[in-house]
Amino acid sequence: MKKLHGLGRGLDALIDTTHVTTAGSSSISEIALSKIYANPNQPRHTFDEEALDELAQSIAEHGVISPITLRKDSDGRYMIIAGERRYRASKMAGLNTIPAYIRTAKDEQVMEWALIENIQREDLDAIEIALAYQRLMDDYDLTQERMSERVGKKRATVANYLRLLKLPAEIQLGIKEKKIDMGHARAILGSPSPEQQLSIYKRILQNGLSVRKVEELVSDTKTAKKELRTTPSYTQQEAFLQEKLGGKAKIVGKKITISFRNEEELNFILSHIH
């Protein structure tokens, strides 16, 4: 696959407005909303309607403060590179035009910019960010280290997001729907099997467990499994004792427990021990 260079550290580094082609302005143009369409490779799939409505009200009162970035097609239409929320809100506010930077770019670059712009937004959900990271890495043959450099994040941050994609689909959907947060998801990942992860996820929903409680739950599960693996099996010896003592003996770890209900049972046990 052909590698693309110049990913930069962020959208500002990627879009050099020095050479932007504009009409009637040294930096921006007013573009008719009817000529603009959304980028089909936009990683954001859902928009918060309440937040969008608030943005529309702000735009109706103050206008669009920050221009969006567009690419002009050969048919005279414009595709959004960055700023789809502002575009949608402007339509809701009843505007006919929107201020925009016009950028000449190849399809690959447009997708690259759109992904990075969305990754850097605070209001993307964790799964959308994870998918955007994964797509950039796959399409441009990037390592996690290179990915972290390009988007200005720590490598551990990138790795934590990518790990979310290993969770069962039900849990990923729960993250998208904000039923659990990133902290819960990271704690769940400490559980080794999908079955256990789903079990813990359902307990979070049912009991409203905190992140700390989930971490303790996962830790206890691991400890119990470890003890189960390392504890020797004394099944035959326990069966022998139970036969001799009337089912009153149990071997737990390295201890033998013998129970009795009264003095008669105690004397019976003692007589069979000698």
Summarize the structure.
This protein has 274 residues and is α/β, with parallel strands linked by helices.
Strand and helix layout:
Elements: H1 11-14, E1 29-32, E2 36-37, H2 49-62, E3 68-72, E4 78-82, H3 84-92, E5 97-103, H4 107-119, H5 126-140, H6 144-151, H7 155-163, H8 169-176, H9 182-188, H10 194-207, H11 211-230, H12 235-245, E6 249-252, E7 255-258, H13 263-273
Parallel strand pairs: 2-4, 3-5
Antiparallel strand pairs: 1-5, 3-4, 6-7
Helix pairs in contact: 2-3, 4-5, 5-7, 6-7, 9-11
From the structure above, extract its key features.
single chain, 274 residues, alpha/beta, Conserved hypothetical protein from pyrococcus furiosus pfu- 392566-001, ParB domain, 3 domains, five-stranded mixed beta sheet, two-stranded antiparallel sheet, 13 helices, 7 strands, 52% helix
What report would you give on this structure?
With about 270 residues, the chain is of the alpha/beta class. The protein has 3 domains: about 10-120, Alpha-Beta Complex (Conserved hypothetical protein from pyrococcus furiosus pfu- 392566-001, ParB domain); about 185-230; about 235-274, no CATH class. Helices cover about 50% and strands about 10% of the residues. It has 13 helices and 7 strands. A 5-stranded mixed β-sheet has the order 1-5-3-4-2. It has a two-stranded antiparallel ribbon with strand order 6-7. A hairpin with a 5-residue loop joins strand 3 (about 70) and strand 4 (about 80). Helix 2 crosses helix 3. The radius of gyration is 30 Å and the shape is elongated. Mean pLDDT is about 80; it is low at about 1-25.
